[in-house]
Amino acid sequence: MWWSECRRLCGKSKTSTSVANQLLASKPATSINLKILANEINTALLEPQASFDPLLDNIETVSTEGFKNPIISLEATFKCLSTVISSKAGGPDNIPNWVLRDFAPELAQPLRCIINSSISQGTLPDIWKCANITPLPKTKIVEDAAKDLRPISLTPTLSKIAEHYVVHEHVKPALLKRLEPDQFGCIPGSSTAHALINLMHNWAQATDGTGNTVRIFALDYRKAFDLIDHSLLLSKLSTYNINPYIINWIIAFLKDRKQRVKLAHDCLSEWGSVRAGVPQGTKLGPWLFLVMINDLKVPSASDCIKYVDDTTVYEIISKGGPSNAQSMINEVATWSTLNSFQLHPKKCNELRVSFVRSPPSYDLIEINGSKRSASDGRAENPKGSERRPLLKIL
């Protein structure tokens, strides 16, 4: 059932309606074909980036004077090639994965030379900066490509091998020394389960027999990965202890990227230029996002938990005490504006947890001029005749 649903969502199931068919069904008959639809989807996905300034060719790189040029070993290159999963789709370079895996002994040395030259020169092959976009639906019914689709990038496998080296040998070690303890995404030995256990423990401890109330806000950022300002990202990245050769390689990785939407084997859109964001589906993308969001903090009387781009902030209110939730949200909103993140008020939700007989009431918080209603920690059953607690202390 799990993989059947995944295939359905990806539009690969022969018995289900694909994303393309859903969008075609909403348009007048004979007014559009699959190729035109692919171009329309690509335009819709790139349109929100129109206000961003792309990285220019004359962007200032970081001085490498006094630093050693990083070198990937032959053994590491061979290991990456020999463990390529041949059943996975290749990228826009049209090199089948089975070729890379089966000919790993022959390809390891030339690929090693290409990667080392790429890092030392701070440039990437143009095809490594291209991506085939698989549009995945966010909702069961897809009506608007701009709102209902999430772009997942399929990049060349050779590019991913280079990214793997950059991430695991340089970016990851540097970030793990600086990441705030409130971040649970991408961290070795951490997971959503750890984040949830941490939250539940803190809320239970705060409300067990104390009469306290917890106001919890699940925040949502509009197209969080796609609307990252490259200049801001590189400014933050430069504060980490990362070899300048690697930073210059990341600059080249982000600059002049292109994407096209793939709806079928023989249906590809025209190429479009990517002005902002980090590509979802790459190895480097999530770590660059962690750099962007790491300095998001809340007032000392509040707390925050992050799982990559999923952010939950909360405050513990003493019995009979006032709520400072609006100030907390205002600080988050200010940080978001300064960092070119866009809070999505309609998808931001509040949950209140209290075990007193008559829970206190508080003013609704306002996000970018929109007031958000709150749940009291209970939910209606499908028939609406009974209420059951969402949180249960075991």
UniProtKB/TrEMBL annotation:
InterPro entries: DNA/RNA_pol_sf, RT_dom. Residues 117-367 form the Reverse transcriptase domain. The keyword Transferase applies. Residues 373-394 have a biased composition (Basic and acidic residues). GO terms for molecular function: RNA-directed DNA polymerase activity. Keywords: Nucleotidyltransferase, RNA-directed DNA polymerase, Transferase. The keyword Heme does not apply. Residues 367-394 are annotated as: Disordered. It comes from the Eukaryota. PANTHER family: ENDO_EXONUCLEASE_PHOSPHATASE DOMAIN-CONTAINING PROTEIN (PTHR47510:SF3), REVERSE TRANSCRIPTASE DOMAIN-CONTAINING PROTEIN (PTHR47510). This is Putative RNA-directed DNA polymerase from transposon BS. It comes from Stylophora pistillata (Smooth cauliflower coral). The gene is RTase.
